[in-house]
Design a protein that fits this description.
DAP_epimerase_DapF, isomerase, Diaminopimelate epimerase, diaminopimelate epimerase activity, binds the ligand NC(CCC[C@H](N)C(=O)O)C(=O)O, alpha+beta, single chain
Length: 451
């Protein structure tokens, strides 16, 4: 059987993308693992399978490089949007689909003094989590992606997709700089809201949250370029989180990482060289790929939109909102060049950590999982310890927060807001809302894989 595929990468997190809307391709874990193998296969951190969907423009099934179905992949989602646009998928304005777009439907204001009802009947993808549910309307007209960054240029270039954790919206915007061989497009996806009380805080430097994928966030004070990400990451992934595992993100302030710029340039050059070397392959296989109706070059015709991503080529200063992150990825069982859901987790953890620092939170149950992994299983998040931190978080209520994250393979940007909702039963809850992840998602080459 011959399987046409496209290779994509988002900040160096690379994927094999397959169009399976006709449901003719059946792969098992072993076959997917072989396709992702860097020595005997195409080579990728994961596989994106695009299927058809009744409730969204497409369904994304994400598989890790080990061949097994993974959870939400942020960069994979951005690349899937790029691939979907390229194979001609466009936003369908069906009423059933519009019902599925908001993750929650109910009441919402900025005031933080509402009471809420869930409306899971109306929203087919609503999956209540344990405990009181926070519900909120996402404006159907905007689908939640528009914020002070500006609007997507065209409704046509915005797609809904069903992923492991429910429905998302993704789209493409133009970058307003030219003269570089790098993509002029920025691909953006929205993410599910995250409740503060679902973030596990081990100590001042270690947190855990699930934002569609499970993430441990470890803030480092030492030089991040020197840390053994694979061995430390693997230790935490298995010893602290067991077989189910976790993605492990090591974080430093960007300024602490003296070599990151150099490293990043080398990697970008490698990606570019690879793509150029693969030029032949593009020609050989172009007939097997469905009609290409959107490519990165089309970005030049999107017209002027507000700049999303203005730091990269101007040289970013080591300001407080700029972090450097290296991630050990579960399912790849290695360090990857970038991790999208990891960046989102880091951005929110950074916000919480600052609030805790300003509040002089005293971590009586202090543990450092990087040294004492087993012991940390006993240290659950002590809510009372952090209750003032939650109040502290309110200071920037509803302001757009932004974190720029440099990873070894490139830069990503995360935006979010901090909101307050009255819980159905008792007191108020802090919720991180309007979360977006943006950055490059580039087509690398097309090919045909034979099994
Ligand atoms: N490895 C994952 C999820 C994929 C993360 C990723 N590369 C991203 O960009 O978010 C898993 O734990 O299943």
């Amino acid at each position: 059987m011959e399987i046409p595929f496209s290779k994509y990468q988002g900040a160096g997190n690379d994927f094999v993308a397959i169009d399976n809307r006709e449901d003719k391709i059946r792969l098992d874990d072993d076959q997917r693992k072989k396709m992702c193998d860097r020595h005997f296969g195409i080579g990728a951190d994961g596989l994106l399978e695009i299927r058809s969907s009744d409730v969204a423009d497409f369904k994304l099934v994400y598989y890790n490089a080990d061949g097994r179905e993974g959870s939400l992949c942020g960069n994979g989602s951005r690349c899937a949007v790029a691939f979907a646009l390229r194979i001609g998928i466009r936003h369908k304005n069906t009423s059933s689909q519009d019902r599925a777009i908001p993750e929650y439907q109910s009441l919402s204001t900025d005031q933080g003094n509402n009471s809420f009802e869930t409306s899971s009947k109306e929203s087919p993808n609503f999956q209540p989590s344990a405990g009181p549910n926070i519900v909120k309307i996402k404006n159907r007209a905007t689908n939640g992606l528009e914020n002070s960054d500006g609007k997507l240029e065209s409704e046509n270039l915005k797609l809904s997709f069903l992923a492991a954790d429910g429905t998302h919206i993704g789209g493409v915007k133009k970058r307003n700089w030219t003269g570089s061989s790098r993509s002029s497009c920025v691909y953006i996806v929205d993410m599910k809201d995250i409740r503060f009380d679902q973030i596990k805080i081990y100590d001042a430097d270690n947190m855990y949250m699930d934002n569609g994928s499970p993430h441990h966030i470890a803030f480092l004070s030492s030089h991040i370029e020197d840390i053994d990400v694979v061995n430390n990451g693997r230790k935490l992934r298995y010893e602290l989180y067991g077989e189910g595992g976790c993605n492990i993100n090591f974080v430093a302030k960007y300024g602490q990482c003296v070599n990151s710029r150099g490293k990043q340039n080398i990697i970008n050059q490698q990606i570019k060289d690879n793509a150029e070397n693969l030029g032949l392959l593009i020609k050989e296989t172009s007939e097997t790929i469905p009609i290409s109706v959107f490519s990165d070059d089309d970005c030049t015709n999107l017209g002027q939109v507000t700049e999303l991503f203005n730091g990269i080529e101007k040289g970013m200063s080591a300001d407080d909102s700029h972090l450097f992150v290296r991630t050990y990825e579960r399912g790849v069982e290695n360090e990857t060049l970038a991790c999208g859901t990891g960046c989102v987790a880091v951005a929110i953890a950074d916000y919480v950590r600052r609030a805790a620092q300003e509040n002089h939170v005293n971590y009586t149950d202090n543990c450092n999982p990087t040294n004492t992994s087993k012991a940390c299983e006993l240290n659950s998040h002590s809510y009372s310890q952090l209750k003032n931190t939650e109040e502290r978080l309110s200071r920037n209520k509803n302001q757009l927060q932004e974190r720029r994250i440099t990873m070894p393979g490139g830069d990503l940007k995360v935006t979010f807001r901090v909101n307050y909702f009255k819980k159905a039963v008792c007191n108020q809850a802090t919720v991180f809302t309007d979360i977006t992840l943006s950055g490059p998602a580039q087509f690398v080459f097309d090919g045909v894989y034979t099994i």
